[in-house]
Amino acid sequence: MGKRDAERSPDELSRRSASLFSVPAAPAVWRLRTRVLPLDRPVVIGILNVTPDSFSDGGRFADPEAALAQAHRLVAEGADVLDVGAESTRPGAVPVDAAEERARLLPVLRRLAAELPAVPLSVDTTKGDVAAAALDAGAEIVNDVSGFRHDPSLAQICADAGCGVIVMHSRGAARDLATFVHASYGDDPAAEVRDELRRQVGAVEGAGVAPERVAVDPGVGFAKRAAHSLAVLAALPALAAWGYPVLVGVSRKRFIGEVTGVKDPAERVHGTTGANVAALALGARLFRVHDVLAARQALDVARAVFAAGERR
Ligand code: HH2
Known about the structure:
alpha/beta; binds 6-hydroxymethylpterin-diphosphate; 8-stranded parallel beta sheet; globular
């Protein structure tokens, strides 16, 4: 029989609590199109929305010059990767056709690839031909919020390009993604999310994408009420146990507003920090955020604490 806590020395107890909260094992690197991203430090992915209508920063960076200035700011604040998106998933956002999406993205991606060559670029799209053009313009990663469900050509395009892919859990068609239309779950929402995500990862790998290029994302806020988003975050260790790098996109989202009572998304930075640090402790390695400086500092400090625990 094991010892009771009362019989353990303070040193033994603190060693055990350090290992309880130490970061679960994750792969050492994530392979992208032309480079390898180390995962020994939390990876901060800065969001660059070149959209007129995103939920928290819509319209601010739709002009390419404004987008470039914002990209330089995010990198100066410590972003490791930039995720560039031209179609909002916000409920009620106007769908964007592929030609318009390309016209918004390509000038920005080309300039970023030239001006910030050390920063891997991710393209947030669900469309194969947009992804193909973005990869030609220098993107390293394809981030698909439909989890490679909407466009059957996309996984093959990624396999041929050898790029990194982010497979995110979601349900339903484009207009329903960030709504509650499909937010019905049984007793264990996180297990259902994992089952569905597992199928999507299988489909992506079945199309030829190498497992070491895959990152997985539970899709916080996508077909998930606040309780579902909290449940998938709490269950991150089971997702991390698959062995892929885990990404979370909690930044400024509605569940943070519900927990904190903060209505304005731009004011949700402190709640976002809390969610990101919790996610790091539970196994996430990649953090998609609007507020890069806060995430960079908070995650680096949290990582340093866990690392000190591991050395004991
Ligand atoms: N969330 C959003 C967009 N893309 N990609 C991943 N992998 N994970 C996410 O959680 C995620 C994502 C929604 O946030 P945002 O880009 O700020 O808003 P909008 O869709 O309105 O542009």
